UniProtKB/TrEMBL annotation:
The gene is Dmoj\GI24239. SUPFAM superfamilies: Immunoglobulin. The lineage of its organism: Eukaryota, Metazoa, Ecdysozoa, Arthropoda, Hexapoda. Residues 1-22 form the signal peptide. Coiled coil: none annotated. This is Ig-like domain-containing protein. InterPro entries: Ig-like_dom, Ig-like_dom_sf, Ig-like_fold. PROSITE patterns: IG_LIKE. Residues 38-136 form the Ig-like domain.
Length: 301
């Protein structure tokens, strides 16, 4: 073998090696979790440098459901595969990217979705990427708070229930009272309600919170009571939903308030902010104000 042919062979090998490394799928976009009522868009991008694109194929669990072959007629083809339906005309592919829209058919749409790109003759190089998609029945509404009023008085007992929307994935409910989580003893979970629907077992969770409107949580804050219920799905923070309701919070003893508003008692009221005090101190204080008021009334002005 002479020097020239050796060089030629070497160049060929180099080109071939470049060919091996040049074709690859750069990105695949498959939603991690979706609701079965939604349509989804799958897409993949590839780098063909040096190759002519022969075909792009989409598979679900190794079964081909879509093909783009720009050098053939028809350019686009779809194949029936259980669990998916390619939406009519809702696809687009070219030399660098391929996108296809699907409507889903429930739990059986869950699976591994793969995009496979092939180069043209003589190499017919292949490159692929895959990703999993879970098709679930996701909550369609924010959690529901029941039993909550728009007005409360300090010392009053409050009991409210939060319910998550029906869902095939477990939901975790968390209450917040003026931004703070309640104590364990203030919570009462109920047995989940389940219903079979759309090939799923749908579950609704309920969590009650009950407490007296007393203690530091309420004496420090102003006249607003805010109750928030958060519904979260494990591993999917983007699916978090929440509901916040607020009520006005007034002093526990209205009669006492009226007395404090009496003009003669204004100085006594200033000295004695009864209702920001714990219960017993408040009682003593109220008595003191009453005595003071009686004294004021008896005194000639
Ligand atoms: C899904 O796409 C079809 C066809 O374009 C449309 O009729 C349907 O309303 C879409 N569904 C949703 C949930 O967007
Ligand atoms: C392919 O289509 C995408 C999206 O429409 C576009 O951004 C891109 O430039 C196109 N690539 C080529 C090679 O035509
Ligand atoms: C997809 O799910 C299968 C089975 O649960 C798992 O073995 C595989 O690693 C997953 N693939 C990806 C890309 O997450």
């Amino acid at each position: 073998m002479d020097y020239a042919s050796l060089l030629f062979l070497f160049s060929c090998t180099l080109i071939d090696m470049q060919g091996i490394s040049a074709l690859f799928v750069t990105d695949i976009s498959v939603p991690e979790i979706v609701d079965f009522r939604d349509n989804v868009t799958l897409s993949c991008s590839y780098d063909m440098s040096g190759h002519t694109l022969n075909s792009v194929k989409w598979y679900k669990d190794r079964l081909e459901f879509f093909r783009y072959s720009p050098l053939m007629r028809p350019v686009y083809m779809t194949f029936p595969v259980a669990g998916i339906q390619v939406l009519d005309g809702k696809y687009f592919c070219n030399e660098s990217t391929c996108r296809v829209d699907l409507s889903l058919l429930g739990a059986k749409s869950t699976g591994t979705y793969m995009c496979e790109v092939s180069g043209d003759a003589p190499h017919f190089k292949l490159a692929a990427k895959e990703d999993n998609m879970t098709v679930a029945a996701l909550p369609q509404s924010d959690p529901l708070i029941e039993g909550f009023n728009s007005m409360y008085r300090l010392e009053e007992f409050l009991s409210a229930t939060c319910s998550s929307d029906y869902s095939s994935v477990p939901t975790k409910l968390t209450w917040y009272i003026n931004g703070e989580q309640p104590m364990l003893g203030e919570l009462q979970p109920f047995i989940d309600t389940t219903i079979p629907a759309h090939d799923y077992i749908l579950r609704r969770q309920r969590l009650q919170v009950h407490f007296y409107l007393q203690g530091h949580r309420f004496y420090q804050v102003s006249k607003i009571l805010e109750l928030k219920c958060v519904a979260e799905i494990e591993n999917y923070p983007e699916l978090r939903r929440e509901t916040t309701l607020s009520a006005s919070l007034s002093h526990s003893d209205n009669l006492n308030n009226q007395m404090l508003r009496h003009p003669g008692a204004s100085s006594a009221a200033a000295d004695c902010r009864c209702c920001s005090w714990p219960r017993t101190s408040c009682l003593i204080c109220s008595l003191f104000v009453i005595i003071l008021l009686t004294q004021c009334a008896q005194r000639p002005s």
